[in-house]
Amino acid sequence: MFPQSSPVTVPETVFPIAENPWRLSIAPMMDWTDRHCRHFHRLLSRHALLYTEMVTTGALIHGDVERHLRFNAEEHPVALQLGGSEPSDLAHCARLGEQWGYDEINLNCGCPSERVQRGAFGACLMAEPQLVADCIKAMVDVVDVPVTVKHRIGIDKGESYEFVRDFVGTVSEAGCEVFIVHARNAWLKGLSPKENREVPPLRYEMVHKLKQEFPGLTIAINGGLTTGAQVAGELQKLDGVMIGREAYHNPWWLASWDTDFFGAEPSVLTREQVEEQMCDYMAREFAAHGTPWSAIARHMLGLRHGLAGSRRWRQVWSDHKLKGLHPRDVMALAHSSPEPNMNTAEAACA
């Protein structure tokens, strides 16, 4: 049994959400951006806007609301992404999200998976802009927080700018003022969700054109952006940038965001201090909810990306044979030199 630990120390979030929380954000990613991942990311950036994984309306209406909506107060600003296509259900779930304290409600109109399509939501909703508008209006009418949409530039192999222009125009008339645009089409047949993030070509110019045509709307871009230079370039043309996989796989990049993109003082935390903070968080979560440290540690495996010894460090934090150890002991083991011819578990038990 892990001992009770003190609450994790996290710098106070000082970026007012009312200014422009969409300047830089981390994308909602299924199986990745749970509350443990968001806690980790908040240690690295005080100002980036964080998103939940997509939560379906059915999961909230018929499932465990607390399990799906519980989050840590230090995650603010944090947005709830909903998946659904029934206006009344979405209104109910948006109201729940606001009651639980989320700073934004986002509607998923970009996920191309067949499972999501069977539920008649995600990217296939782009073919029904009036339905999306009805969904947005239903949510806007019952909450005071922003209601936003994340979508693609098109579906299947159609390359018409008019398609996405008309979608944005119709939905904006229902009260949506923020559009986060993944600058690829969603191919609804023939590609896996992973391939849909890589195969359809990126067309950033389509997103730029949307901003030119709708200057009063907040337009943020998502898709394929992996460097600070790219982010800075897009921020010259658009209101915001959303980063996905690169933020997850190379999280130390986030430690520079507050200085580079929000004009804040540099972070004083080192990688090791962030790791220590995460160890304390793991112990606290185990004591409070019985969460094994491995369910949390998986999100920080990219923390030492590019550093000498990072491979062994990841191996230690991925070794489920060590699940009985306190996270601080696992950290010590990850930073130690193993004896020759001894694997991680043997070294821990020696």
TrEMBL record:
<feature type="site" description="Interacts with tRNA">
    <location>
        <position position="108"/>
    </location>
</feature>
<feature type="binding site">
    <location>
        <begin position="28"/>
        <end position="30"/>
    </location>
    <ligand>
        <name>FMN</name>
    </ligand>
</feature>
<keyword id="KW-0285">Flavoprotein</keyword>
<feature type="active site" description="Proton donor">
    <location>
        <position position="111"/>
    </location>
</feature>
<feature type="site" description="Interacts with tRNA; defines subfamily-specific binding signature">
    <location>
        <position position="311"/>
    </location>
</feature>
<dbReference type="InterPro" id="IPR018517">
    <property type="entry name" value="tRNA_hU_synthase_CS"/>
</dbReference>
<comment type="similarity">
    <text>Belongs to the Dus family. DusA subfamily.</text>
</comment>
<feature type="binding site">
    <location>
        <position position="150"/>
    </location>
    <ligand>
        <name>FMN</name>
    </ligand>
</feature>
<feature type="binding site">
    <location>
        <position position="182"/>
    </location>
    <ligand>
        <name>FMN</name>
    </ligand>
</feature>
<feature type="site" description="Interacts with tRNA; defines subfamily-specific binding signature">
    <location>
        <position position="314"/>
    </location>
</feature>
<feature type="site" description="Interacts with tRNA">
    <location>
        <position position="197"/>
    </location>
</feature>
<dbReference type="InterPro" id="IPR001269">
    <property type="entry name" value="DUS_fam"/>
</dbReference>
<keyword id="KW-0560">Oxidoreductase</keyword>
<dbReference type="Pfam" id="PF01207">
    <property type="entry name" value="Dus"/>
</dbReference>
<feature type="domain" description="DUS-like FMN-binding">
    <location>
        <begin position="26"/>
        <end position="321"/>
    </location>
</feature>
<protein>
    <recommendedName>
        <fullName>tRNA-dihydrouridine(20/20a) synthase</fullName>
        <ecNumber>1.3.1.91</ecNumber>
    </recommendedName>
</protein>
<keyword id="KW-0288">FMN</keyword>
<feature type="site" description="Interacts with tRNA; defines subfamily-specific binding signature">
    <location>
        <position position="194"/>
    </location>
</feature>
<keyword id="KW-0694">RNA-binding</keyword>
<dbReference type="GO" id="GO:0102264">
    <property type="term" value="F:tRNA-dihydrouridine20 synthase activity"/>
</dbReference>
<feature type="binding site">
    <location>
        <begin position="222"/>
        <end position="224"/>
    </location>
    <ligand>
        <name>FMN</name>
    </ligand>
</feature>
<comment type="similarity">
    <text>Belongs to the dus family.</text>
</comment>
<keyword id="KW-0819">tRNA processing</keyword>
<keyword id="KW-0521">NADP</keyword>
<feature type="binding site">
    <location>
        <position position="81"/>
    </location>
    <ligand>
        <name>FMN</name>
    </ligand>
</feature>
<feature type="binding site">
    <location>
        <begin position="244"/>
        <end position="245"/>
    </location>
    <ligand>
        <name>FMN</name>
    </ligand>
</feature>
<dbReference type="InterPro" id="IPR004653">
    <property type="entry name" value="DusA"/>
</dbReference>
<dbReference type="InterPro" id="IPR013785">
    <property type="entry name" value="Aldolase_TIM"/>
</dbReference>
<comment type="function">
    <text>Catalyzes the synthesis of 5,6-dihydrouridine (D), a modified base found in the D-loop of most tRNAs, via the reduction of the C5-C6 double bond in target uridines. Specifically modifies U20 and U20a in tRNAs.</text>
</comment>
<dbReference type="InterPro" id="IPR035587">
    <property type="entry name" value="DUS-like_FMN-bd"/>
</dbReference>
<keyword id="KW-0820">tRNA-binding</keyword>
